[in-house]
Amino acid sequence: DFATAEDLVQDAVLAALQRWPEDGIPDRPDAWLFTVARRRGLDMLRREDNYRAKLAQLQWPVQPDPDERLRLIFTCCHPALPRSAQIALTLRVVC
Questions:
Q1: Per-residue pLDDT reduced to its tens digit, 49-58
Q2: Where are the beta strands (DSSP E) in 1-95?
């Protein structure tokens, strides 16, 4: 992944700018930059692997059964029932 490689090199250069003024420039600055970028890349890959492994271990919540209340209300209001029974059944379901 070219974009990730660019980010890793930028991080290595940033680390060099922070560390080299204190510790001095190493004998092989290109090897130092390459090593830092490679190690950060490996750390990133390990982090992603750990994340995927933990994600695979998660217990996803069980989806509840669909709500049948609306269907029950429509059944209570069926035109085959007398109006008084429709009202009584609907009120009982709602309450």
A1: 999 999 999 8
A2: none
